[in-house]
Fold this sequence. Notes:
This protein is α+β, with helices and mostly antiparallel strands. Helices cover 47% and strands 15% of the residues.
Amino acid sequence: MLACRTDPAFFIPLRTLTALVCAFLSFAAAPSGFPATSLRPEDLRVASVGYRLGLEGQALCPDQVPLTGLLLHHLAEYDGEGRATEIARHALDRGPGVLATVADSPAAQAGLMAGDVLISLNGAAFPDPRSMLAKQRRGDWRAPIEASEAWLEAVLRQGPAELRIGRGSQELTIRLQARQACPARVRLARSNQANAFATGTYVVVTTRMLDALRGEDELAIIIGHELAHNILRHEQRLDEQSGTRGNASRIRAAEEEADLLGLKLAAAAGYDVRAAIPMWRRLHAQFGGGLQLVRTHPSLKRREQLIEAAIEEIERTQAAPPPASPL
Length: 327
């Protein structure tokens, strides 16, 4: 779905006991030598699926970005009580904080951990988080937050970067590099509205939507669809075409394109795309016309036809023998 005209807060206040339990459980469940770490498991879950889609779908994306497996949070995203907690617990007034690192990602391999705070990048300090607190409207502080993350990405496009981080009472220097991949900037928003949307830069999934999904295959299909909107630049394309924002046929055509590419991304990452049709039937039955993901999309019958054809194409491609090597 294309971006809603809402901007739910990405993050919620975190209590100390919850942080300790979540970090322990995430570390203990990690299956690799470079384990995931997280202050909130649900955020790690969304970030991990997005990372896998971006990495494994690389061949499907003409424009690629540095992917680190690093999920950040920022002081301005918390309310007054939450801000005090995050300052006391994680010194989030010093710079962007590490909310999660995906297992086996460059961030995990570099040794970054949930709870770290980023102080400087190649010797230049990150913007002062406290300067954003005076901004009253969310849109006013969202821009500088995204700019700080874009700065990190821009530096990583040139090669490995040197990060100065705070970890408790210590300061450490960490060398971070990235892997080229599809744009996979995915966030979890605390909201009681079941929704997922693409902003042109980020993909946002709400906690209510996450609760409604059954397993990682369904989550990958939802995130893949929204990533496809960003990869195909649908937001920009529709904005550039005069009058097309209200043109239902053009919007539905964009949704169909996103369904196709999203399924290809999910299949490339090893997810079961056959979960798509049962998922959409259940979401239609559960939420009906009140679901934003339904209102701007083709009818359920049309969507099922398109998804079935896309899956058959994907399965034919997967079953085809690889091309013969030249002699």
